[in-house]
Amino acid sequence: xxxxxxVEAQMADLSRGDVIDGLVKALKPYGAFVEVGGMSGLLxxxxxxxxxxxxxxxxxxxxxxxxxxxIDHDKANGRIALSTKTxxxxxxxxxxxxxxxxxxxxxxxxxxxxxx
Length: 116
Description:
This protein is an alpha+beta fold. The chain is built from 4 helices and 5 strands; from the N terminus they run H-E-E-E-E-E-H-H-H. It has a 5-stranded mixed barrel with strand order 1-2-3-5-4. The longest helix is centred in the N-terminal third of the chain and has 12 residues, at about 1-15.
């Protein structure tokens, strides 16, 4: 189908470790669905912050623009796993100061990837 071809083309451009802009679409008990490049990715609640998140709605809200890192993607099924905790300069920053996380995302990601 045409939609599948479009998704496959977009998936080809993305790779693990990329930092991308996303739009929070929906919150679920287990995390947030984030639209990245026209596709839906899952930002699992365990991947949002190093600190435990008790109230997801206090951290993210639908319609919010965020930066996140692609930590895994399943090209066959068009699924993307996202993380913001890999972008935290200090553990818990996604809860305390998300703006700082997004501003420093590219730099923090570079340091994180060098450690891998």
